[in-house]
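Please, structure for the following, as tokens.
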Amino acid sequence: MAEIKSFKGLRFTDKAGETGKVCCPPYDIISSEQKKQYIAENPYNIIRLELPKTAGDTDEAYAKARECLDKWLEDDILRCDEKPGIYIYEMVFDALGANYSVKGYVSLVKLEEFSKGIILPHEETLSKAKEDRFNLMCATGCNFSQIYSLYMDDDNSVFSMIDNESKREPDKQFTDADGVTHRLWCVYDEAFISQLTEKMADKKLYIADGHHRYETALRYKKHIAENTAYIGSSEYVTMMLVNMENSGLVVFPTHRIVRDLENFDIDAVIERSRDHFDIETSLSRKDSTEKLDKAYKDGKKAFVLYHGGSYTLMTLKSTEIMHELMPGASKALCELDVSVLHTLVLERIFGIDKENMANQKNLTYTRVLDEAIEAVDNGIADCSFILNPTRVSEIRDVALAGEKMPQKSTYFYPKLTTGLVMNKIFE
């Protein structure tokens, strides 16, 4: 099963400045303008290494990232810890009207092909992002950010270990612009690491966020094995590991924006949907939100179609049609809200095929509800679909069945910060 390993974390020294000024959100949610702002606040921000190439840049940006890394190591801006460690990481935040805490740990995890059933994906990926991550790894030989994964911890013994080990003051702490407090504890105790490694040996890991980076790491491992005698830690990748039963896990929905369709007819869409959906039209935003939330609590498959200032609740009458349309797929995958939307509505009624969705030709994604609505109001989109979040238990069940959800089915909140601890694959 899962093999974890301690590592000599690559971390910023005090010479770099405030911790909060050298860290940044994940690369895939940062614009070119935001990148400039981070660097303006502190020229040592990790964004210079994690996202060297943005719109308009050439592939030379990857080599420049390597030059920057070497310079920071030489100037003692970045330094690897002297001893291998495990890094306990906690995020404290407000969401959905309550305060939450998610605490896990960062370690190396041995790379395994998905077919082995040890590390399980739950979502399809987009090829463009994987090419960018591969080029960066080849240039720098580093994992700058962690893959976010979950594990089952029925007796809570793993969490108890890391919780007890993090009773002291954290080694690093800061609160970001979204009000999320990030804390890191460095643990070098060999007995603790050995016990933790043993406890994880019988567990499967479920990728929550970072599918692109995991698939890239598999490709990089093969690339190194074929091209060099020294493999370093290329057979491993850094992960943030969290108990799946952690009460602080929050998953936001990712809404769909539909655009550039020929001869789009909202009335025809609604009429064709009546065969399989109970339809409630002309709802206000408040009413549609309340009804969508109730459907979620009642276990119903539903989403809201927005067009022309009006909200339409679509509630699936029966899941039988999904099993007919997805023969051979598990119950878990067939009955996801996003499966219903993609297979029954976007494919059959709108005529948007899977490749089109993957390439985002007529479909884009956002977790920001206002953005999904404004795209329609501003004439950028034909319509949008407002979804409920995917349950963590659904993510587990789809992964266990060896299947993948449509891309952008989940959005774990908050995102892990980048820059607290990293892995230099070749010491």
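The first helix runs from residue 19 to 22. The mean pLDDT is 94.
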